């Protein structure tokens, strides 16, 4: 009996009524229901992160100028906006959502891989620009000049003769008499398909002649001092248009691939509703991919490249391998792909009637332009500082690792600092990044500024998405958040890349960086003044009016006033709230 009592006591102490005690809980837990979506996030983001950050470098390597790059990025948001609704419409009509998703993955790989076969522009590749005859001295004894087919800008030349010489250019146009042109004349060797072998243009105050080189005599003992013209180098149009259409087609299929992936993730989270398994934690696979893949791909590129010529093909092959793994994962785990919720575009104007919402949308777009310029041209700038390709990938690794705790505790950080304050801090974070980059001459010094990406990108978007939830009326959360995301990641990036590309082409990377930094700082100051000086008071007064109107309705319903008394009461409330 004593033994039985002891046994019962032990059983009661364990709380299992005689059942064996539960095993101790492990510090980790693998939820098999969410493992497929995490794997797909890793593979899909690994494919994108392998190639997308390097595409600007690839564009310049085949001879596209900064102006060309800017124009391509300007039109890419059009493809990003068109892709998701078109694929969504086809999915609604056919019901074959998973097949269309896999088709998007395959087609974006096909069009991106086709970029490897775009013919390079012969006169504007980095090798041609380095060997260009721009800014040279042409000897008169060797006139007409030798072949200069590697010329990338027209040359503007002036005759330079010894002080005791009265040397003049002698122009003898065909079928006309010869004439002497003074030293003040300018000789322009025009740029064309044959370099500077086209007819030269000779101008002074009274004369303008187009001359073949053999029709111009240069006196002995003198030389022509030449400098490149102000016009931008012009790439081969076949190269530009081929790349332009292939890149837009690739973007058209890439955008819905990521949209459908996010929608599927949301559907899985809602279906299983497991504690701790929220939308953000499923995206950790994408963050891990951004930590691992960039330096790995960069190291392979450095290993296969030759001095003076970088081979970017390993990035394209890595993209394709990861995309094959994505498709295999979808079939193995029988993942059901979901469509995103439809946005109520017609009701978006209800949100934009509020001044704070309109300013918020504008701020998100401006921050997107700041992000877009760095995404498109930071690697180009670091490459000019002789950064190895694997180091470019390490910058993304550092930013990704730093973002993990920031994303994990983003709700607490946003609540502590405030959503508006984080948006304002993001502007000044971009100011510090841009100005800091412009002063470094060692590419490894970029890492401290990369850490600021935690504030300018990750905390910024978490704060923006949460603030959108506060601004959006009931039923319009998805609409406002989706619209803000499109403005930031598509429209804003396109505008930033376009403006930044032309600034790079006209003034160089240092001036472009500092200009964008100053613009970001000014926007941050203006937003702080606008919100704390005007918008916050406007929002407070509107909320006070809404509370007072709600209270007036409650009193009216309680005491049974008629509609006329109710209208008078609401009018008095509105006057009191002003």
Tell me what the structure shows:
By secondary structure, the protein is of the alpha+beta class. 65% of the residues lie in helices and 6% in strands. It has three domains: 196 residues, Growth Hormone, Chain: A, CATH 1.20.1250.20; 99 residues, no CATH class; 233 residues, MFS general substrate transporter like domains (Growth Hormone, Chain: A, Up-down Bundle), CATH 1.20.1250. It contains 20 helices and nine strands. α2 runs antiparallel to α7, α12 runs parallel beside α15 and α15 packs antiparallel against α19.
| CATH architectural group of the largest domain | Up-down Bundle
Per DSSP E runs of 2 or more residues, the count of β-strands stands at: 9
Question: Into which percentage range does the β-strand content fall?
Answer: 5-15%
Tell me the distance between the termini.
Answer: 83 Å
Helices, by number, come to 20
Q: Could you give a short account of the major beta sheet? A: 6 strands, antiparallel
CATH topology of the largest domain: Growth Hormone, Chain: A
